C-alpha cells in the first residue's frame, strides 16, 4: 500500500519515533534501574524484573479506537521496522529507534479454524495459532526479536562489540537465540547450553547450523538454567532466557495478534497456552492487561495454562484455592513428550503470581486457571489435530488436551471460542510421532498408542523385477500393470464401469 493511500490522520504515527522512559522494576522490592545496562535480576534482592515505561500515560491521550486503526494499517506497510513484534512498537519497546530493530519475518502467524469434525470431537469452536510458522519454527522468535533489537540498540549507544549471548534451552530457545544473533554478524557471538539427550535431533541441528557454540550438560533444563544464571551474574554475557525482560515484551505480541484477529472483541474468548518456563503465559497476561488499560480491548478473555503431569509445579500451586495458603514448590520432572514444557522450576513464576492477581481482579475469579494433562493425552491430541489438517507440535497437543480438560472441568463453556497455542512446528518433534507409530516409547513416558492413530508405510513387492538396466518396454509395461493392480487392491479401488 502506497504511503499517500493511508489515512492522513494516521500518517504521522505509522513510523514511530523513540519515546517513553523505560526502567527495570523489581517485583520483590520495587527498586528501579535504568535500561542502559544488561540486567536480569535485582542487584539488591535478586528479584525478577518487569519492564515499565514511566511515561506510559502518554498513550492514554488517544482512545482505544486510534490504536486499533493504527495497528491494523501498520500491517499494510512494507517497512520491516514496524513489522513483527514492532507493529506494536509503543507497547513493546518504544525507546528503540527503528534503525536498531531486528526483523526476520516473525509474528502474525496464522490462526487456523478447526474443521467441523474436529470441533465436534472436542465439543466447541476453536482455532490453532501456529507459532511454528515463525522463522526458527517456534514462538521464541517473538521474544528474540525484541531482546536482540534491544541488544543491538545498547551495543550501538554504549559502543559495545563482541558481546556473547547465551541461553539455556530445551531446544526452541537455542534455535531462536542462535538465529537472531547470527543475523547481527560479528557483533554478537552465540552460545547455548542444552540438557544432554533431552533435545530432539531437529532442534539440536538449528543452533549448530546458525554457528552457535553448543554445550551439553548432564541433567535437565533446570540444571542448565542454574548454570547460565550464575554465568550472567558473574560474567559479561547477554542472557537470552525468559529472565530477560525484553523477551517477555516481545512475546506479548501473541496476545496482541489474537486480539487483532478477532477485531479486538475478546468477549467469550479463551486463550490456551502450555506452561514451560512460564515466560509465554506471563507475556500473554501482561499483553492483555496492557491492551485493556488503554481500552483497545473492553473484555479480558479467559486464559488457561496447561502442564503435563510430568512437570506440573504451576498446576500444583493453583490447586490451592486459598491464595493466602499457596506455596510454590519446584518439582523433579519426569520424561515428557512436551520437551519445551519439561521444566520443574519455571523462572518466571514470580511474574505469573503477580500478574494473575491483577488479571483475576479485573476479569473475575474464573478468568485464569491451570489444568493438568497426561502424556497419553498430549500425544493423542497432537495426532488428532494433525489428522484434521493442523501442524501441531507436542506442545500443541498439550494445549488441545488442556482445552478439553478445561471443558470437562467446566472452566470453559461450549459456546465460547478458544485459541489453542501450537508453540512450535510439528516437524521439530517428529521423533515422538514415530515412537508412537512404532509403539517404542520407554515405560516412563506412560504412552500406549491408540491403533486408530498409528500409521506406517507398506512396502509393495513387484512380481516383475528385471535384474538388468535399462528395462525393455515390455518389462516396464509388465511392472506398471503389476504395481497398478497392487495399489488398487491396497486402496480398495474398483475399475470404472
Descriptors for this entry?
497 residues, Rossmann fold, six-stranded mixed beta sheet, globular
Note down, in words, how this protein is organized.
The N and C termini lie far apart (55 Å). The model has no long low-confidence stretch (mean pLDDT 94). This protein has 497 residues and is of the alpha/beta class. It is 38% helix and 14% strand. α7 (201-209) links the parallel β7 (188-195) and β8 (213-217). The protein has three domains: 111-136 and 252-452, Rossmann fold; 139-247, Rossmann fold (3-Layer(aba) Sandwich); 459-497, no CATH class. A six-stranded mixed sheet has the order 4-5-13-10-11-12, sandwiched between helices. A four-stranded parallel sheet has the order 8-7-6-9. α5 (140-158) packs parallel to α6 and α14 packs across α15. It is built from 17 helices and 13 strands. It is globular. The chain has helices at 11-14, 64-74, 89-92, 116-122, 140-158, 172-183, 201-209, 221-234, 245-251, 253-261, 279-293, 313-319, 349-363, 375-386, 394-408, 430-438, 473-491, and strands at residues 22-26, 32-34, 49-53, 111-113, 125-130, 163-168, 188-195, 213-217, 237-239, 269-274, 302-308, 368-373, 417-422.
